[in-house]
Every structure is written in structure tokens, then in C-alpha cells.
Amino acid sequence: MSDNKIYESEFQEKCISAVVSEEHQSERLDVFIPSVGEGMLSRSKTQALIVEGRVTVNGKVVDKPSYKVKPGDVVLVRVPPVEKKEIKAEEIPLDIIYEDEDVIVVDKPRGMVVHPAAGHWEGTLVNALLGYYPEIEGVGRGDRPGIVHRLDKDTTGLILVAKNERALAALQRQMKTRAIKREYIVLCRGSFKEDLGTVNAPLGRHPRDRKRMAVIKDVGSGKGREAVTDWQVINRFGSDYTLIKANLRTGRTHQIRVHMSYIGHPVVGDPVYGHKTAMSEVKGQLLHAFRLGLFLGEDYDQYKEFTAPLPDDFRQILLQLEHKYGEEIPSWVIE
Q1: Exposed end of the chain (fewer CB within 10 Å): N or C?
Q2: Is 100 a residue of the active site?
Q3: Residue 335 reports pLDDT greater than 80
Q4: How many Å apart are CA 16 and CA 90, to the nearest integer?
């Protein structure tokens, strides 16, 4: 595909414009559109927009999702504006690991969404933060005030929040230059053959399921972005499981989860990139943001590290594996 654009019209609609390339010959319209929408549209949402008459092909309305596109077709989608909702401050307890005048480090629990979005307007980390620190409202993006980086809903551990615009800019700069250290503890399926290694595989939206990410090898196409994960084995539990330490050099959506699945060792409990596990007590991926290192201080030149203990459910599973396989887990992981 080529000449794809996403822009706002004078009516504040989001518009997607794309020219069909040879690789999408005879593809259904409701399959083609999500592939060029950069994750904006699911297939079901696309089908609804088509039926509503919000899609044109070569200037003519097409209201059939099954329409087969042809190379050279110009497809235009008009996406109505999403109703903006007020983000409410809520009294939700937070485990605050560190704070100063500029920065907050929070240990996020499993099941908490980071910022409000469709289906999650309440109970998010942002709602809780506004309850603690109303002054961060307006810092950065309106829907995610102060948020420097994100963790998935069921990923636990350390997340960084800025209290003001100066801090946000400084921390985002550290993220961009890869000065911030992010270390995770991860339980994976199977036994890693090597003791350490690196996964260097670019990531982008899955071509068929826009809610998922995937390894996209053709970086030059613009679909894939560089993604690098370093890993090191902590413990092996027979041939069934491996506990690893993973370090992010880049910070792509679902990066560790996709990379581990890509090399044949999906994260235990991952409902999207993994598979069913015998551990019925696992309620989400066993992926914990354990250590966070960054530069703080007046001039952001003082390096500090913070750690967060494993959540109890993750810790209990590891203790069970330690007992079952007779494999001693390092105290720095368990304690």
C-alpha cells in the first residue's frame, strides 16, 4: 500500500485515506481498512462504518464489507469523533515507591489500566493519580496526564509519572535516548537453550488483528519499528518453564510478550500471545517490571534505581515451582 494518510477534517472527523497496492489484490474491504488504520479501527468497527455509508472507494459510497478492493482503488473512511469524557479523580489506593517535587514512581497492580480509554473510563492509574495529585492535570496529553510510559493491564510493577511539564520533557528525553533502565522478571514456557541472548525483531500492528502486535520483518515498509529485548536466564524448571530477567532497549507495545512468543517461549498466563497453561491460578501474564533506573535531581544528572517486589500471586507460583523442581530461586527475586 502507499499514500496512506490519517487526518482530521473540518468537521473534526478522523479520516483514513489509502491507495490499494498489489499486495492487497481482491482483499475484502473490511480487512483492508484495519490494515492501514494504524490500530485505529477493529474489523467489527470497520464493518459498522461501511454499512453506515462512511466509506467510499474512488469517490463512490460502498456499503458492503465484502467488497473486493483492486490495486489503485482510493479508499476513504470517515470516522466520527469519539465523545470526550471528563477524567475524574478517584480515591484509589496506590503503592507509591518514590516521589519528589517532579517525579512519582508507582508499583502498579495487576488488573489496573494505565489511562482512561473506551471501556475503561474509571478505575485507571490516571484516575487514582488525579486523586492523589490533582496538580498533574494538564501535564502532557489530556487523557494521560503525567504518564511517561505504560504497562499492560495485567503487567505489574514500576511505572514512572511526571508532576510537571519540565519533568515530563526530561524523562521523555531519557526514554528516547535509552538512558532509562527497565528490567523485568518474566516466567516463560519451555527451557531456554542458552543462558542469555537478545531478540532483535521489529514490531508493528498485526496485519489481520489490529488489537495485537507482531514481528514485522520489513522495516522499510514503515509497518515495523525497531524492537530489541535482552534476556538472561535466572532459573530453569525442568523443560517446562524458565524464569528470566528481560531488559528493554526499546519500548514497543507488548514488546516482551511478542518477542518471547516469537522465539517459542511465550510468557506464562499470556492470554493473547501464549496458550493455555495448567496453572489455573494464573490470572494474567507473569511479567513484572522489577527495576527502574533513571536520572533525577535538579539537572537530571543523578542516577537512581528503584525496585518493586513480585506481586504475591507471582511469588507463590515461583515458590511452588521451586519446591516441585528442587530449583533454588535467588533471594533477590523472592524477597
Answers
A1: C
A2: no
A3: yes
A4: 36
Query: Distance between CA 202 and CA 204 in Å, rounded?
Result: 7
> What is the tens place of the pLDDT at every residue in 94-108?
999 999 999 999 999
Determine contact, residues 261/190, Cβ cutoff 8 Å.
no
Confidence of residue 286 (pLDDT cuts 50, 70, 90): very high
Cα–chain-centroid distance for residue 97?
22
The answer to whether residues 329 and 322 touch, using CB atoms and an 8 Å cutoff, is yes
Catalytic member of 73, 152, 154, 270: 152
| Residue among 4, 6, 38, 68 nearest 206 (CA) | 38
Facing residues of 293 across strands? Answer: 181, 305
| Confidence (pLDDT) at 142 | 76
CB 233 within 8 A of CB 196: yes
**Amino acid identity, position 246:** A
pTM of structure:
0.77
Q: Which residues contact 93 (CB under 8 A, 6 or more apart)?
A: 128
Query: Cβ–Cβ contacts within 10 Å for residue 99, how many?
Result: 14
- Per cent of the chain over pLDDT 70 is 90
From residue 11, alpha-carbon distances to 5, 78, 79, 258, 270 in Å are: 17, 10, 11, 38, 41
Residue from 186, 200, 168, 145 nearest 287 by CA: 186
- Please give the average per-residue pLDDT across 283-311, as a whole number: 95
Residue of 4 and 207 predicted with greater confidence: 207
Neighbours of 61 (CB within 10 A): 12
DSSP state letters, 99-159: E-SSEEEEEEPTT--SS-BTTBSSSSHHHHHHHH-GGGTTSSSTTSTTB-S---TT-EEEE
Nearest-CA neighbor of 303 among 314, 319, 291?
A: 291
Residue type for position 297 = G
22-49 mean pLDDT = 83
